[in-house]
Amino acid sequence: MSRTPNSNSISINLFITLSFSVLASYSNVVVDASPTNLINGSSLRGMFIFGSSIVDNGNNNNLFGNFAKANYLPYGIDLALGPTGRFSNGKNVADLIADHLKLPIVPPFSDPNTKGKSIVHGVNFGSGGSGILDVTGVLLGVTSMNNQIKNFRNKILPQLETEIGRKAHKILPEYLFLVGAGNNDHSSYYLLHQNIIWTPKVFAAKLISNLLAQLKELYDLGARKFLLLSVYPVGCNPVLAKNKDNCVKELNAAVYLYHDQLLVMVKHKIDQHMPAAQFSVVNSAKIITGMIQNANASGFTNVDFTCCDTSMLGGLCKKKGKVCPKRDEYVYFDGLHLTEAANAILATKAYNSIDSSEVFPVNLEKLVQF
Length: 370
Description:
Blueprint: H1 12-15, E1 46-51, H2 93-101, H3 145-164, H4 168-171, E2 175-180, H5 183-193, H6 200-221, E3 225-229, H7 249-273, E4 278-282, H8 284-293, H9 295-298, H10 340-352, E5 359-360, H11 364-367
Parallel strand pairs: 1-2, 2-3, 3-4
Antiparallel strand pairs: 4-5
């Protein structure tokens, strides 16, 4: 399988293609919207999802002028519906978290059928290539975190209140708010500007400040339960690293610094700004690095190469290109995104890990009990 050379001078076109997202063609779920209709005895009614391609289930496919689309084979090769658009061979981490919670897969916001009863168990707003910062991914025509929240507030929330028959501040505590953002801020925007306008510490502080404001906006609308997926070890993406021993260390160091600042935010600033909120922060970089460094224990035989043949530009799978037959033995499906097997480990750790260095202060299983 192919691999892209390691170089910090790779053109901007390479990096702005990172974390492109995928289109889910799962059917919209029509349900009874009564206030007591929670899922399988859970404390949750559903899930609202924000972020980039690690959680996106198809919004970019419906964006005008957006080139970040993956609705072709070999993407989706292991999904019953084929290439729905997800940047993986199968489910992404948000899908698998929903599975753990026994929640339905929620529809993408940009699907014209996402309205009425189909939204009562949640909506996915994620947009591949986007970031916490508005400037991240702007050349791709993607939907930034701020605009994702705007779409939630202005377009979905009024419909949700109508369907369920209660005001937002009464409804939203029954939902999990999953946020998977920051990868592109590091792997594209920061990587191109490091040592020019940002030090790692200043950049982490800027991201945390913006993220805190975004979470506070959701909190003010009524959100109370938050699952935050911290940034992946993007310096180890096959598009950048020759192998597991040659990750871009400076980039991964910035990723870990961001995670540390995220914990500081949850420990201290949340009490000031969102006193009733409950959080679970997933140290994605540590978990994924563990898969890479301890491949055999995780069931992988290949952590250095992509499962699909990739293009030189962006590390994405070639259309109808070759694909490895044993996809569950690979960590990376393309040069940027995980296989379903790797996503499954990350989702399981998020749900039930008892290691505080992997999830803090509690895992998702405990979070949803509050």
